[in-house]
Amino acid sequence: MDAPELFEWSDLSGGADAFQRFSPPVRLGVFGDPVEHSRSPVFHNAALKACGIPVAYTRLHVDATHFPEALRALPAAGFLGANVTIPHKAAALAGVDEVDDYARASGSVNTVVVDGQRLIGFNTDGPGLSRAIREEFLVDLKDLRVVLLGAGGGAGRAIAVQCAMEACERLVLVNRSVEKAQALAAELAPRFRSEKPAGPVERLVAIPHDESALARELEHADLVINATALGMKRSDPPALPARLISPSLLVYDTVYSGGATRLLEDAAAAGARTANGLSMLLHQGALSFEIWFNRPAPLEVMRQALFSTP
Ligand code: NAP
C-alpha cells in the first residue's frame, strides 16, 4: 500500500505503525506549515527509488505549537530523518540534541538525522545556494562581490553565513529592518578581516533596503541574491528597482514558485544573467540526501523529477 502524500503531526503520536505499514515504509519527510506545496517529496522519492533504498518520503503538516513535540516523536515513529521548512527552521535548531557548526551559525536547521534517540541538526540551504551559483553562473561565491537582499530573514542569514565562510570578495547585507543586517554584519565581521587586499570600498557593509543605498553598493557588485519574501506573490513589487540592474550583474532569486519573478524579468530585460531558486532547492535536497545516506545523491534523477513537476 502506497503512503498518503500528507500526514498530520498527530499521526506521529501513533508511533511506528502509522508509518511503517506502507510499502515502502515512510521513514523521511518534510515538516512545514503550510507544507502541501513542498516539492521535496517529488525529487527525494525519485532519488530513493533510483538508489534502490526502500524508504518513502512524505509531507508532515505541523503548526508551530506542536512542532517541538512532533520533532521528538521522529525516533519512535521509525524515521531516519527529516527536512524542516517554513516556519520551523529556527525552532528545529532549538529542538535537536546536537547541531553542526554551520547550522548553529545560520541560526536554523533544515535537515535532521535520527541517531538512536538523538536528533542531529544540519543546514543545507547555504551550501545548496553555493552549489547552485557555481552551476548556474560557473563561478564561485568566494570570487564574487555579493549584494544580499533580505539578509535579516532565515534564508538570508544562512546565505550570509555561507558567503562569510567562503570569504567572498565583498558582502553587502541589505534588509528592510536595517538593524538585523547591522547585527549580522557585527557577527560576521571577524571573517572579513582577512589577508584579502582592501579595495576602494569596505568588504562588509549593512544597508537598508532603499534605492539610494542600493544604487551606491551595486556599483561594486557582481551578484545580487534575492532572499526576501518579495516575488512569492505575482502582485509583489520587484525586490530591486529595474533601473538599478546593469547587464553585467548576475541575478539569483531564491524564490522558485510561480515562474519568473518581476526581479528576474527585469534583470533579463536589462541583459543580466539570471537564475531562480529551483537550483538551490535541488542542491539543498541533494545535500540532505548525502547527510542521511552518506553517499552521493543521484543529482540528475532529482533534477529531472523536480524540473518535470509543475
Ligand atoms: P523570512 O525569514 O520570513 O524572511 C523574509 C525576509 O524578507 C526578511 O529579510 C524580510 O525583511 C524581507 N521582506 C519581507 N517583506 C519585504 C518587503 N516588502 N520589502 C523588503 N523586504 C521584505 O523568510 P525566509 O524563510 O528567509 O524566506 C525568504 C525567501 O527565501 C522566500 O522567498 C523563500 O521562497 C526563499 N527560500 C528559498 C529556498 C530555496 O531552496 N530556493 C530555501 C529557503 C528559502 P524584515 O527582516 O525587515 O522583515
Summarize this, please?
This protein has 310 residues and is α/β, with parallel strands linked by helices. 36% of the residues lie in helices and 19% in strands. Strand 9 (170-175), helix 8 and strand 10 (204-208) form a beta-alpha-beta unit.
Question: Topology of this structure?
Answer:
Layout lengths: L5 E3 L8 H4 L5 E7 L7 H11 L5 E6 L5 H6 L8 E4 L4 H7 L2 E2 L1 H6 L4 E5 L2 E5 L2 H13 L7 E5 L4 H12 L4 E6 L2 H11 L15 E5 L2 H8 L4 E4 L23 E4 L8 H8 L3 E4 L1 H16 L5 H9 L3
Parallel strand pairs: 1-3, 2-3, 2-4, 5-7, 8-9, 8-11, 9-10, 11-12, 12-13
Antiparallel strand pairs: 4-6, 6-7
Helix pairs in contact: 2-11, 2-12, 6-7, 6-11, 11-12
The structure holds NADP nicotinamide-adenine-dinucleotide phosphate.
Instruction: Please give the CATH architecture of the largest domain.
Output: 3-Layer(aba) Sandwich
Stretches where pLDDT is under 50 for at least 5 consecutive residues are none
Share of β-strand residues: 15-25%
Bound ligands, named by name, code or SMILES = NADP nicotinamide-adenine-dinucleotide phosphate
- Would you report the number of β strands? 13
Q: Give the full name of the CATH homologous superfamily of the largest domain.
A: NAD(P)-binding Rossmann-like Domain
How much helix is in the residues?
25-40%
Mean pLDDT: 95
Head-to-tail CA distance between termini: 26 Å
